[in-house]
Amino acid sequence: MTKSTKQKTNYSGIVKKSILINSSSDKVWRKISNIAGLPEWVLDVKKTVYLSKIKKGVGAIRNITFEDGNQIEEHVVAWKNKKYFSYLAISGLPLRVYHATISIESKTRKTTRVTWQSYFNSKKMTKKEFDEFVSSLCSFYQSSLENLKLKLEK
Questions:
Q1: In the chain, what is the greatest distance between 2 CA atoms, to the nearest angstrom?
Q2: d(CA 96, CA 111)
Q3: CB burial string 123-133: b at 16+ within 10 A, e below
Q4: What are the start-end ranges of the H helices in the chain?
Q5: Is residue 25 within 8 Å of 108, Cβ to Cβ?
Q6: Which residue in 114, 89, 111, 118 sits closest to 103, CA to CA?
Q7: Pairing mode of beta strands 111-122, 12-21
Q8: 75-101 pLDDT tens trace
Q9: Nearest CA to 7 among 124, 121, 135, 123?
Q10: What Cα–Cα distance (Å) separates residue 118 from each residue in 126, 133, 141?
Q11: 100 - beta bridge partners?
Q12: CB of 27 within 8 A of CB of 148?
């Protein structure tokens, strides 16, 4: 193994996944804007609780507990009703920065595109560790969006 693959440094990345759901944008927005309702569609989420009195919009804070016990605290930093919201992960990830946005776009009266995109900067890790993290995040977003589609198209 070469020295460069073992060397730890900070890496930046972007993950973006979209899915077309046969459901009205209102129905999709109701599901995704319930920021404590993650166990209903996001994979491996055991529970989500509010850490703030604010439940929707900028200033809402949630704590997510995953099946493996890992916890992530997230703060909503942008919100446009029935369009998108953005949040920052404050703790729980091997990252220095994690900023994500979930947005919806009405394609027809009964078809909605959901996009989940994030920018992140890692704590010090090897290139291999970073690539594995990005790959698992891609799979996590895709599988969760497919689960959301399944739930909304019932």
A1: 55
A2: 36
A3: eebbeeebeeb
A4: 3-6, 25-32, 127-152
A5: no
A6: 114
A7: antiparallel
A8: 999 999 999 999 999 999 999 999 999
A9: 124
A10: 20, 13, 10
A11: 87, 118
A12: no
Note the pLDDT tens digit of each residue in 99-149: 999 999 999 999 999 999 999 999 999 999 999 999 999 999 999 999 999
Question: Residue 29 and residue 56: Cα distance in Å, rounded?
Answer: 12
Sort residue 46 into left (φ over 0), alpha (ψ -120 to 50) or beta: alpha
Which tokens hold the place of 108? 């027809």
Counting DSSP H helices and E strands in the chain, the numbers are 3, 7
User: What residues pair up with 14 in beta bridges, in sequence order?
Assistant: 119
Q: pTM of the entire structure?
A: 0.94
Q: Write out the DSSP string of 117-147.
A: EEEEEESSB-HHHHHHHHHHHHHHHHHHHHH
Q: How many C-beta neighbours within 10 Å does residue 120 have?
A: 22
**How far is the C-alpha of 95 from the C-alpha of 144, rounded, in Å?**
21
In sequence order, the β-bridge partners of residue 115 are 18, 103
